[in-house]
Amino acid sequence: MAExxxxxxxxxPVWNKESRALILGTFPSVKSRQNNFYYGHPKNRFWxxxxxxxxxxxxxTIEQKKEMLLHKHIAVWxxxxxxxxxxxxxxxxxxVVPNDLTKILAKGNITNIYANGxxxxxxxxxxxxxxxxxxxxxxxxTSPANAVYTxxxxxxxxxxxxxx
Length: 164
Prior knowledge:
There is one protein chain. By secondary structure, the chain is α/β, with parallel strands linked by helices. It has one domain: Uracil-DNA Glycosylase, subunit E. Helices cover 32% and strands 22% of the residues. It is built from six helices and seven strands, in the order E-E-H-H-H-E-E-E-H-E-H-E-H. The protein has helices at residues 30-35, 46-54, 62-71, 102-105, 118-132, 151-158, and strands at residues 4-8, 21-25, 74-78, 80-86, 94-98, 112-116, 136-139. A four-stranded parallel β-sheet has the order 3-2-6-7. Strands 1-4-5 form a three-stranded antiparallel β-sheet, covered by helices on one side. Helix 2 crosses helix 6. The longest helix has 15 residues, at 118-132. The radius of gyration is 15 Å and the shape is globular. It starts with a strand and ends in a 6-residue tail after the last helix. The model has no long low-confidence stretch (mean pLDDT 95).
């Protein structure tokens, strides 16, 4: 079994001043840390869902992913700036230091914040809500661990993002 490691979030949020929706995950998975970008595990359905709900071609490169998000006014970041974690296991997260979301919220036009899964929602409510005062909308996780949700069901739930 993997050892618990104390890690720092290694990459910046994707956003610009036109971003209106902010999607928050928990902390980058092992694959995402290796790829140095969000939702890097090939079985994570995040990019398929965002592509589908925005009517965009499925991006393959990091640059294409950033371009799609920014073109559709979507920002992506994680709740956690640093933590102790075993592998990619959200349930193992301890010693949380949250990201300072005011970096985006004060300078951008975010109108809605969405949690990619229950753990992101719980972490936001525990560590961040008191600082932002902005409610967060919990969406089902796009992680392959959330096998009860098919891609079609995820797309149905996530369509709320395009209604801003």
